[in-house]
Amino acid sequence: MLTDDILKEEFPELNERAYLNTAAEGIPPRSFRNALLRYTDDKTNGMEGREALFAEFGACQESAGSLFGMSPQEVSFCSSTSEAYNLLSSAIDFGEDGEAVISDLDFPSGATPWLISPGESKVRLWKNNRGVLELDDLASLLNEKTRLVQLSLVSFLTGYRLPWAEVQSLVRERAPEAVLAVDTTQAAGRVVLDCLNADCIFASSYKWLLGTHGSCVVITPDKAVNPVTARAGGWYNLANAFDADRFERVEPFAGAASFATGMPAFPAIYALRTGIDLIRETGVAAIAEHADRLVARVHEGLPELGFQTMSPAQPGNSSGIVSFQTENDAELNAFLLERKIHVMHQAGRIRIAIHGYNRDHDIKSLLGALRDFRG
């Protein structure tokens, strides 16, 4: 968990509210203000400040690499997961009959790049069954034509967590030529990652990683079975950007570096390193142990109040997110806000997100308010 001392020093905004909406917007630590002030000082040095800017980029690579168990060279950054996935689409040759597999629990940024040009790839949809993605259903979608399998380790919609080892083994067996990509936006910084043997790993910065908008962690492991290199114009991603032959050919750097196409969003990089270093100081395993207990209380309490969760609390499949459906989501959300309880509501759904800065009293307040709302 994030200790009480850390909570008091870094998250004073949480003193008088139960913030259970990290899956939408994480709360950055107070120290990120100092990071942005450092950026301001470095930026106002003009060209002379660039050395410090790029040094911060390298330091953030090291911090993110340590968090994900990677070397700095296996890590880079772009502006968002949407940008990252569109760049990934440039790295995959679908040919005339290539196929992509996605799930109906994925966020749009990971699903739509393969749908925008339907003539180039056939998209096969792995559909959930009562909130669970069944392995037998995935097996029927995989074949020698599969060129991409894109999945979210944790679903933004329901909080369902993939049984990664089984998924990875099945994909490698049935579709050995497929790039296996995973979105860890709703997992990184909150759950212990078991998906680091994927070919490509992405994570937005402004949720569980406690950063700000404007950056996305991009990881392409050196040990990837099917390595990826984005084929995009730019300059920061090119080995020959300023060579004499730069108008005759384009030579992207390999792997993660190919995704950082232009000048990095340095303010977001400064802030992201602050969030990641705070998580590293506590340890993801400690955060998960603390927050998982709170998640279990929500899973136990909701059925008692007549709410059915959208994803079952199966062993190993729980995450920081619990969602349930209700016809009066807007009314319920307004009721919770009156009690300073922050959740997400959308399209008949309430989503609860629990991080290391949440406490037992947050869950007690939530369940008590839901009981009162039920009358």
Secondary-structure content class? alpha/beta
Give the CATH class of the largest domain.
Answer: Alpha Beta
Give the low-pLDDT segments. Answer: none
Number of helices, where a helix is a run of at least 4 consecutive DSSP H or I residues: 11
Strand content: 5-15%
Which architecture of the largest domain would the CATH scheme give at its second level? 3-Layer(aba) Sandwich
Strand order of the largest sheet: 2-8-7-6-5-3-4
Tell how many strands the DSSP assignment holds.
Answer: 12
| CATH-defined superfamily of the largest domain | Type I PLP-dependent aspartate aminotransferase-like (Major domain)
Q: How much is the radius of gyration in Å?
A: 21 Å
Helix content: 25-40%
User: Mind describing the biggest β-sheet?
Assistant: 7 strands, mixed
Core attributes:
375 residues, alpha/beta, Aspartate Aminotransferase, domain 1, Aspartate Aminotransferase, domain 2, 2 domains, 7-stranded mixed beta sheet, 3-stranded antiparallel beta sheet, 11 helices, 35% helix
Please characterize this protein's 3D structure.
There is one protein chain. By secondary structure, the protein is α/β, with parallel strands linked by helices. It has two domains: 4-20 and 284-374, Aspartate Aminotransferase, domain 1 (Alpha-Beta Complex); 33-280, Type I PLP-dependent aspartate aminotransferase-like (Major domain) (Aspartate Aminotransferase, domain 2). Helices cover 35% and strands 14% of the residues. The strands form three sheets. It has a seven-stranded mixed sheet with strand order 2-8-7-6-5-3-4. The model has no long low-confidence stretch (mean pLDDT 95).
